[in-house]
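Re: Re: token formats

Sure, here are both.
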Amino acid sequence: MTVKEKAFKWLEESTHAMVELETLLSSVPAFAPESGGQGEMRKAEALIGWLGSKGIHEIERFDSPDPRVPGGRRPNVLATIQGVSESGRIWIMSHLDVVPEGDRSMWETDPFKVVLKEGRVYGRGVEDNQQGIVSSIFAALSLSAAGVLPAHTVKLLFVADEEVGSVHGIQYLLKEHDLFRKDDLIVVPDGGNAKGDEIEVAEKNLCWLKVITKGKQCHGSTPDEGANAFLAASDFALRAHALESSIFTARDALFQPDRSTISPTKKEPNVPNVNTIPGDDVFYIDMRILPQYPIDRVLDELSRVMRAVEAEHGVKMSYEIAQRNESSPTAPGAPVVRKLASAVKEVYGVDAKPIGIGGGTVGAYLRNEGLDCVVWARLEETAHKPNESAILDNIVGDAKVFVSLMLEE
């Protein structure tokens, strides 16, 4: 039996321990303060304790200051497994935080008590992103069990704050700590599909806008005496959305959908009663723009439309940027893409192809620093849903893919 076969066999026999780790992680909710939570510290400490009990002791913590949480810190945890070579280090980066459970009546089980049923584990966070945490850790442990070092040093990074912008996670690490090298191979197991045949190498430019409209409130029976902020905002929302088909019309088959999208989304309350013309209105726009269009160009066009709406409706309009990120792509032929595709083919028997997505992963920040990064996992895509689940075979299979990557010369 080869070393790799020994590692694979050990993984297949370790599903009970994988469920135990999933259970531990889900039992410690890790919500951002924006979601009414206390951050990731308790979860990070539980994970560090578990890693130590399994013989992984080379652990560092990089805490980002955040006065909103108990203790004032948001943890980023780095576990290192020394390999034969220090060049071409392999990073597998998952995130510690999860989203809240939402409406509990939609759950068939307690979201924070993992349940194993018919080859799946159920609970908040079990897929997003604990499948990545568990599969990467067990890949490293399987090499130790097989008595072999990885071909290259392995870095398992567990970051904070991914669900609400990564300010205290990867953005903090890139700004304050010199962790990465240009020849590193970085995999983020936080996106994928049921076949595992998509390797995300590019993201659309992401921008969220808060649109603020100031009009004049009046009685609903005399609308001409006021300036209807809701009506003006609605007009602007429609005109903004129409820019998809009038101005930003390019198509790129790497992405699905293959176009830029400008979508009005969240709406804040304005007046409490029907018979009042609202003088104030606030809504939001989610923009996912093809990389060939800089966000500033889109904002310039939106400003032009905004001025036209102001003139027509007699209101004042402005916007605030709630989130913004532009991302350079990883080349489809980059070493991390080729090596990961080879490992996926070996384990899952599928030909993984490079794709682009709508945006929103930590990969964008890494790529903007000139680091080759891919986002990949074999997922059922139950993230953020009631009854979130992860298939045990996917956790085992993804761990095998990481083993193949770790043993690649």
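Second one below.
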Amino acid sequence: MFDSGVGGLTVLHAVMVRLPHEDVVYVGDTGRFPYGPRTRDELVGYARELTAVLVERGAKVVVVACNSATAAALPTLQRECPVPVLGVVTPEARAAVQATRNRRVGVLATEATVASGRYVDAIHDLDAGVEVVQVACPGLAEAIQGGEPYSERTLELAQATCAPLREAGVDTVVLGCTHYPLIRHMLQRELGADVQTIAAAEELAGEVAATLARKGWERDRGHRGGCAFVATGDPEAFREEGTRFLQLPIGAVEHLDVTG
């Protein structure tokens, strides 16, 4: 599993709960965080590099626990990778289409994810009649990962990004970045109690479980799975930030050198 930083640990937590017998390697690309302002070509290159690292370490399934990387690179990775590659966009799109009552769905995401149009395509593949309102949230993932997710600055960003969705009358909002669930209550307050928020974690964990079962690759359920953590930036900073996101202790963190 890989993410631009520690946001994907929200997905890892769901996978660990759903599949406690599986071993996981998590790579946080904190040295190149954030992914939101990156170009598509940059994101494809990063995703290829990190996927190769996971495959070399024996991954049975690669999970792209990052919305920007999923939006930019998932089809490329699925064509090129020798093992199944799963991303966050499709599970969230499916959940949003099933949840909406008025067929107006909002998407809060990074600039790269919004620019890709992948959520619009994925939702319309399931129901072409759903209206999709996308709002880019520059700086929000950085504010959340920066150590003060509940600061006045984060609240100001949340208010600014949620306002257009309230005005559009959406009844369902996709939290299109794995960092955003950490401030879910803050976002919910700005969106209103009647708006349902959708995040990737549980849906994606279900897809991982189904893929392993379908392939016959499940570990013995008597095995207690472990998790190895790798960061391209400062390992100690990853450990401190990651513990808050994962809500479990994180021990040693390996440093990984990447191309830049």
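The chain has a mean pLDDT of 95. The domain at 89-200 is CATH 3.40.50.1860 (Rossmann fold).
- S.
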